[in-house]
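From the pipeline queue, job 12 of 40. The input is one protein chain; the requested action is below.

Action: predict structure.
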Amino acid sequence: MLTVNAADLIRIIRAEKGESGFIKIVIDEGGKTSERISVLKELQTNTVTKKIAHADFYEIRMDRKLTRDVPIHIVGSSIGVDKGGELKQFKRDVRLSCVPGLMPRHVEVDVTQLTIGATIRVGDLKLPEGIEILDAANISIVTVAAKRGAVVEEAAPAEGAEEAAKEPELVGKKGAKEED
């Protein structure tokens, strides 16, 4: 069992190293020290005091693939949002597998060119070579939806469309009255 200073652990987490980064743990074994590279696997807090109650670390090797859920950061201002659409994010992280040295802290998804009705899926992500995406390619990450009750611009009517929109003439009734 290892004991970690809670204040040091909080400082590491706040520096954004603890959630998806690597933590070097120095273990003192009676005068002999050893260093281990790890990631924070789970953090438990006391529900009343909000203080750290327990932390689980996972030791990693830099030459073996690691699987992690990495946060997705949405960047840019969408064309669709500028035109009245609403940006909806469905997925907040993506499962990746790679050697620890390639593991990103987060994955950026640029929504700048996203129009109303368009969607970015997991399969649309472009990551550096050596990083494998483990989530299904068809899972939606973000979309721009038309706001409920929003008026969608109507196209100008085609020639002759006005004529076709008039009520049709009833056939048969007019002629039936004339025969009587």
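Job complete. The chain has a mean pLDDT of 82.
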